[in-house]
Protein: ABC transporter ATP-binding protein
Amino acid sequence: MGEVTVHALQGVDFTIGEGEFVVILGPSGSGKSTILNIAGGIDVPTAGQVLYRGQDISGYNQKRLTNYRRNAVGFVFQFYNLMQNLTALENITLAAEMAAHPIDPRKLLAQIDMAERGGHFPSQLSGGQQQRVAIARAIAKNPDMLLCDEPTGALDVSTGIQVIHLLKDFNETYRKTVVIITHNSGIAEVADRVLIVKDGRIAGDRSNANPIAPEEVAW
Ligand SMILES: Nc1ncnc2c1ncn2[C@@H]1O[C@H](COP(=O)(O)OP(=O)(O)OP(=O)(O)O)[C@@H](O)[C@H]1O
Structure:
């Protein structure tokens, strides 16, 4: 930034295994979003490697990065980022149509308990309902991993638990990798593995032998 160099991350080195449910915890500004955006091919690191199934995506050109984002990764954001002029079902279908091996959008709509709400626009849905649609949209592409940046940050406790449930179900039903960034250390107890980020570095990396159910999270 001008004269000042900000090192968003420094010497970060970790591996996430296929099918793992990982929570990344850390204070504001510690570098969590930067990690997620680099893993998802939204940001590109200035140095280092980002290996996905043995391939270094940090060396990809824009076209290959687009393909990577399209097929390998599903994103879930804090404020849902749904297309406002499309219905819930259309939002999910749009993502499905982009992917090579999508999951049936109507089946997902039923799974998120919104079969009756497919024709509603985002402005006609609650925050929790919008986030469920956003998760269904991310899952519809049938990606190898879901990257979620504060997915419960804008939700009340019971809706937040419902959202964590949905992410856990996806992880267990499809054996897909889920990575969640959160400020909420309670959510970390649901994960198989917890990464702690501090000042742009990995300050902790622990496994949970007995992850708790989303309902048991002390919010
Ligand atoms: N576009 C940018 N330009 C300059 N500095 C940035 C930019 N984006 C992030 N940073 C800096 O990089 C560091 C890491 O930011 P990052 O957003 O990854 O943190 P975070 O842990 O996700 O924070 P939060 O929990 O508040 O979202 C911070 O010091 C931040 O100020």
